[in-house]
Amino acid sequence: MCTVIIDFEPGRAWPIAVLGLRDEQPGRAWDPPGAWWPGLGDSVRGIHDREAGGAWLATNDGAPGGPRAAVVLNRREDLDMPAAGWTSRGVLPLEAVTTGVDPDDARSARSWNLVELHPDRVTVTSWDGTSPRSIDVEPGLHLVTHEGPDHLDVPRVHRWRPAFLDVPSPIGPLDGATAASWEPWLRTLRSTTTVPADADEAIVRIDDHDGLRLASLSVTALSLGPDGAVLRNARLAEPGHLPEELVWE
Questions:
Q1: Cα–Cα distances in angstroms (integers) from residue 101 to residues 27, 113, 225, in the given order
Q2: Which letter does DSSP use for residue 81 in this model?
Q3: What is the pTM of this model?
Q4: Cβ atoms of residues 20 and 219 within 8 Å
Q5: How confident is the model at residue 131, as a pLDDT?
Q6: d(Cα 142, Cα 6) in Å, to the nearest integer?
Q7: pLDDT value for 86
Q8: Where are the beta strands (DSSP E) in the chain?
Q9: Residue 185 to residues 63, 72, 115, 169, 192: CA-CA distances in angstroms?
Q10: For 152-177, how does the pLDDT look when each residue is reduced to its tens digit (9 = 90+)?
């Protein structure tokens, strides 16, 4: 299941830094960050799921009220399929950065956590099959998993959140003058691979769940500020294994 590390510091030039590990079936085709949804305009970019057409993570520099981003993580509740069939969870980040999440789509998808990122706030909304519930996340560092933000009963959160808290967070994009500020987080991510990929404590993961094998397929670095979002992505050539060097797209 996916892991998203967020640092939210409202006083910073780039208040939002996100390091995301996207876990999915290794054979499921996807595309790196781009403007894959022409009907939503060139300012909407994201990581595109070819099978269902949605996004795992999306950004919109042209959104009313300022730039925004959103990322969806699967939960584990086993829900009954609606009569009309499932809505892909991948529509939720696209709706979140454009028109707002449609309540019917929210309730007709399998269970999810949606992280909505703005330069001045971070909100996590969860759907477990009962009623969507939202919380505003306080400034600081947070690890979001299938259970939501900072659940210390999730072994990888309990094991590695202190390690990320102990190092400086990125202060800007993974480009130019602020690129080096990502090194402490990336070193910490690499240190997590001392545990096996199939261990409960792993962040770069291989996870057999409900008869499916899920694995970490990519690492995403996002910076969000009042002037826009900078999104970089590195595909893992071997699912569930971090290479010696990440190649950023």
A1: 28, 13, 22
A2: P
A3: 0.96
A4: yes
A5: 84
A6: 5
A7: 84
A8: 3-8, 16-24, 30-34, 44-49, 55-60, 68-74, 112-118, 121-127, 133-136, 140-145, 148-149, 206-209, 212-225, 228-235
A9: 29, 21, 20, 7, 11
A10: 999 999 999 999 999 999 999 999 99
